[in-house]
Amino acid sequence: MAEFDHAHFLKTLSSEPGVYRMLDSDDKVIYVGKAKNLKKRVSSYFRSNVTDGKTRALVSNISDIDITLTNTETEALLLENNLIKKYQPRYNILLRDDKSYPYILLTAHKHPRLAFHRGSRKVKGEYFGPFPSAGAVSESLRLMQKIFPVRQCEDAYYRVRSRPCLQFQLKRCSAPCVNEVSDDEYNQQVDFVRKFLTGKSHEVIAALISKMEAASHALQFELAAKVRDQIMLLRKMQEQQSISGNYAEMDVVGFAHLNGLNGIHLLMIRDHKVLGSKTYFPKVPKDSQPQEILASFLGQYYLAPGATGRIAKEVILPFALDEVDVLSEALSQVSERKVTLKTVTRGERAQYLQLAKKNALNSITVKQSTQDSINKRYAQLKATLGLDDINRMECFDISHTMGENTVASCVVFDSQGPNNKEYRRFNVTGITGGDDYAAMEFALNKRYNKLVDEDKIPDVIFIDGGKGQLSRAEQYFANWPHAKMPLLVGVAKGTSRRPGLETLLIDGGRKTIPMDSDAPALHLIQHIRDESHRFAIAGHRNKRQKQRTQSLLEEIGGIGSVRRQTLLKFLGGMQGVKAANIDQLKQVPGISSDMAEKIFNHLHDKG
User: Fold this and answer.
1) What is the pTM of this model?
2) Cα angle vertex 568, ends 563, 574, to 5°?
3) Helix (H, G, I), strand (E, B) or coil at 153
4) What's the pLDDT tens digit per position in 168-221?
5) Which positions of the chain have pLDDT values less than 50?
6) Which distant-in-sequence residues (6+ apart) come within 8 Å of 401 by Cβ?
7) What does DSSP assign to residue 3?
8) Is the dihedral angle over the CA atoms 452, 453, 458, 464 positive or is it negative?
9) Among 428, 498, 493, which residue's Cα sits nearest to residue 465?
């Protein structure tokens, strides 16, 4: 690799604020940074007296540097965190992706829906969170349903309503599906929900008081009483929560470092109560300093796209940061309100901070204890199987009901345990129903036929089954084109199918590997086998449920989504369609005489 000519590069480098991206010889971004003065900051990497090992390693891999100028240092901070999220550079401190954390979703429908959400944000709408636990989301939704009559039902249920449901009778939904509420009134309730979720409960109460007074002056006493009840519920909830603490909205950040592992514990306080907490373990390059780790965490956590709703008015830090003013300004800018970062604490704040630090340290201890157990299991498994190293293991399982809806699963374990992102399911097709041997061959073909990256070849492949499944797997690998050959191990259940009585098979089942029922290596094998079983069954159940809930109308040729919705709305749902005769079906817009007869015969198993 040609050495990067930093002297020539620095001659033309601007002294304005901006972001720099350092690239290696493959044009891959290896580090993203920001600076108030780009020339001064980037020059510091190429000094002759740099003692930091991480910086020296970074500089030795630089092939080129890209520059993006910004108007202010705050803009540079925002851009830096977006680029870190995008490129995941190996020399940056990285916060793990939070797609699995629960959110509250307010959809972008004509009548928005309030819902629990977890996973990728494909649904259009506003996301509030992430929350520390699913329980915190459920509790928030339950409270809001009592106060704000905004729908929480699924779209499929909402679209086919012909009369209000039980939630309307319980005064937990205003039934926009059947026009029991005007669009303006419903949107006002949605706006109250939005303010409530962003910690503006006092604004909601003030707006409700104005609304109650206006209704009273207009002699709309029923509406005034309804609004009065909303206000009372909100105030009652605030009274119940205020006993938990004196601070309405605050995040407290604890930091701990032990045996090379860094933990950051976030304590979330909203409406005077601890909403929940979570410990994060960012991916940290060697020799990173605590201040650098904490600053990177705060930027990536609070400035991630769509994370505005999680920013508290006040954030308590465990120690001072050099660029705290820039970070505070950036948080204030994206949240559109003043955000304060504090390090000097007394009284209740100090107690919360001590609690956060204690939890951070405890989480590291638990994580390292778990990792020690995993390492012990891996070490014994390597010795049992006679392998020098095990970096990757995969396990396959088949699930079906009487040969129908067959699903194959493949789960992946690495040196840290389960690697959920690498899990795969395969819908098995083109085989005789119930033929587990053919299903296993199908899954292996799907998994490995187009494999290019040899790093993805496992050291061990476990087959959940006996000699038949193992033999079929060995037949597949007989013509294996790669240099690395995985060890194939069958995991056969004992006669009573009780854990601890499994038999490990190799060489097509001709040899067995004896293992004690309490051996840590066997516990690891049971873990990966149970994961593959769970993952296969979950996929099979989802497929079976989807088939069961599939509308009978979808099975009729010529009935698309538009006609299906027209039939359901015109006749009052699926029960109405089933009860209709041919003449009634013909009255539905877009349904001809022939189509009506076709629908009737299909639903009544005629023809």
Assistant:
1) 0.60
2) 125
3) coil
4) 888 889 999 999 989 998 998 888 888 877 767 778 788 888 888 887 888 878
5) 1, 240-244, 549, 607
6) 540, 544
7) P
8) negative
9) 493
Structure tokens at 412: 């992946």
Distance of CA 159 to the CA centre of its chain: 28
How do residues 447-495 score in pLDDT, each as one tens digit?
Answer: 999 888 888 899 999 998 788 888 889 999 988 989 899 999 998 876 5
CA distance 486 to 480: 10
Per-residue pLDDT, 495 = 57
Please report, for residues 279, 434, 534, the alpha-carbon distance to residue 539 in angstroms, rounded to integers and kept in the order given.
30, 16, 9
Residues 6+ apart with CB under 8 A from 353: 252, 254, 316, 318, 345
Angle between helix 290-302 and 324-335 (nearest 10): 10
Q: How far apart are CA 61 and CA 239, in angstroms?
A: 58
Is residue 412 within 8 Å of residue 393, measured between CB atoms? yes
Q: How far apart are CA 521 and CA 197, in angstroms?
A: 48
Q: What distances in angstroms separate CA 601 from CA 303, 558, 586, one per listed residue?
A: 58, 14, 13
Beta-carbon contacts of residue 33 (< 8 Å; ≥ 6 apart) = 19, 20, 22, 41, 80
C-alpha distances in Å from residue 221, one per residue of 227, 345, 558:
10, 49, 53
Distance of CA 158 to the CA centre of its chain: 26
Q: Which amino acid would we find at residue 402?
A: M
Beta partners for residue 276, in sequence order: 268
Beta bridge partners of 289: none
Buried-state track 27-41, b at ≥16 Cβ within 10 A, e below 16: eebbbbbbbbebbeb
pLDDT digits (tens, 9 = 90+) for 411-460: 999 888 899 889 999 999 888 888 889 999 999 999 999 888 888 899 99
Contact 471, 509 (CB under 8 A): yes
pLDDT tens per residue, range 306-348:
666 678 889 999 999 988 899 999 999 888 889 999 997 788 8
